[in-house]
Model the fold of this input.
Amino acid sequence: MSSISLSKEKQQSVLAKVYAYMFIGLLITALTSYEVSQNMAALELTKNTFFLIVLFQLGMVFVLSFFITRIHPVVATGLFILYSISTGVVLSLILLVYTQSSVSSAFVTTAGVFGLSSFYAVTTKRNLDSWGGYLFMGLIGLILSSVVNFFIGSGPMDFVISIIGVVLFIGLTAYDTQKITTNRAYATYPVLGAFILYLDFINMFLYIIRLFGSRK
Done:
């Protein structure tokens, strides 16, 4: 992707489109999650096909991350919507574990933290490119530690992982937001920027609710 900076006016235009796509994706996810959580047959199907859905999502992440600029923008948008729906299906299981007030509080908290991170990225004069390597290593470490803890089931380790996850995705939100304003490809494919920030938001939400959510 080209890293030539855009004008301030163009940056604002690109970010507006990116946030619009992201909002639509989050809205679709929220509505899907709610509808599935209210349907016992859909919930049972989700439980039985959970790992297949996750594998499907991983495949979608790969396609949207590496091939989105090679496909028609309309197709890319359709894939993003499809991914948003699949995420809503998976997240419907969270509504079975946490209270509705916890989910609402976690969402509001995530929205606030996400907004502040993006605002910092847009207003700071500091170049955040140097964060990329550290954030990538942190993400790999987070994934590996999560896999290990999946098998050992350590409560304290889960708590630490959740804290690190929140901090990491705060950093990624700022880094990705600034990256969107300095790469011309996002002006052509705003849905790609929306997808990246959507992933940051969803992951931050998941770690926040693990930290502060009240279980039923």
